[in-house]
Specification:
This protein has 294 residues and is an all-alpha fold. It has 13 helices and two strands. The longest helix is centred in the first third of the chain and has 35 residues.
């Protein structure tokens, strides 16, 4: 019993500094936001308590729900398209020679360390209607009718922004998956090879199941990162055309700083925090519930 409590005390002592920092820089700043969300506030002056009016107005706003829909689209493409591609790249990377693997590692992480402004401007040039890369290729192959104003067309603007966002981080996720693959004991693969298992069977029966902890970690990062999408939208379209490409965070920014309605901006922030907590709890509840030990 004494040993049990001594272990708990040791854990508390080592975790306490981190807990203090987390409280000071994460929990404490949220508290004023909660109070402001119940105020008519322009960011400088509290012009009165309005109760739940800010929440009612936000939840009645069509633009808010449109921004949620855009955010959901980014999350779905990130989890259903980008993560499987990242996993496939990691599996292929693991089977390459050292030189090829080194090239994959360097090229995978390079887009992620570039400034979002650089990435955004690069993709703006790629999507340019007249001389952009995509439309130029379409015209060369005779598909002139498919050449669109990608960032000005309401039908394509969110897909175009999402592709640029996923392109920047798809390699980094692949590198995280590959790091997990290197921790799997080679004896499993040797036994599978003796049994005649090929690349596909080995990947489905050994690698992917044993990567569930890494998958959970990457999934949380990808989902929360996708939900927090702002910079690419700001650089590429500034939420346009109209309010078509706004995400939740961009709508928060617009309300708080463009219309000086800081009360509703804080309201959106609190709702967003609740959404992130719910998503994180769901992932922790349903993904990688059993600990795998090699």
């Amino acid at each position: 019993m004494n040993r049990y409590y001594s272990n708990k005390l040791a854990i508390f002592i080592f975790a306490f500094p981190t807990l203090i920092l987390f409280t000071a820089f994460v929990v404490y700043p949220i508290i004023p936001e909660i109070f402001i969300s119940f105020q008519n506030n322009n960011g400088f002056t509290n012009m009165g308590y309005v109760g739940w009016d800010n929440y009612v107005n936000v939840l009645k706003s069509g633009t808010f729900w449109k921004s949620n829909g855009n955010t959901l689209l980014i999350v779905l493409l990130s989890t259903c398209v980008a993560l499987p591609i990242s996993m496939l790249l990691a599996l292929v990377m693991d089977k390459q020679s050292d030189g090829v693997r080194r090239f994959f590692k360097n090229s995978s992480v390079f887009p992620a360390i570039l400034s979002v402004t650089v990435i955004g401007q690069m993709w703006v040039a790629i999507y340019e209607p007249q001389w952009g890369l995509i439309n130029s290729i379409l015209r060369v192959v005779g598909l002139d009718n498919c050449a669109l104003a990608w960032l000005s067309d309401k039908r394509t603007v969110m897909l175009a922004i999402t592709i640029s966002f996923l392109w920047q981080y798809i390699g980094l996720n692949a590198l995280l998956f590959y790091t997990g693959i290197t921790s799997i004991p080679k004896t499993y693969y040797e036994a599978a090879t003796i049994d005649g298992a090929g690349f596909i069977r080995t990947s489905l029966k050994i690698t992917i199941p044993l990567l569930q902890d890494v998958t959970k970690y990457v999934l949380i990062l990808s989902v929360l990162g996708s939900m927090s999408q702002f910079a690419h939208v700001r650089v590429m379209t500034a939420g346009g055309p109209g309010d078509t490409s706004r995400t939740v965070i961009y709508q928060l920014f617009y309300k708080a700083f463009s219309t000086s309605d800081y009360g509703q901006g804080c309201t959106i922030a609190i709702i967003f925090i609740v959404q992130c907590l719910i998503v994180t709890l769901l992932i922790n509840r349903f993904v990688a519930r059993e600990k795998i030990e090699f």
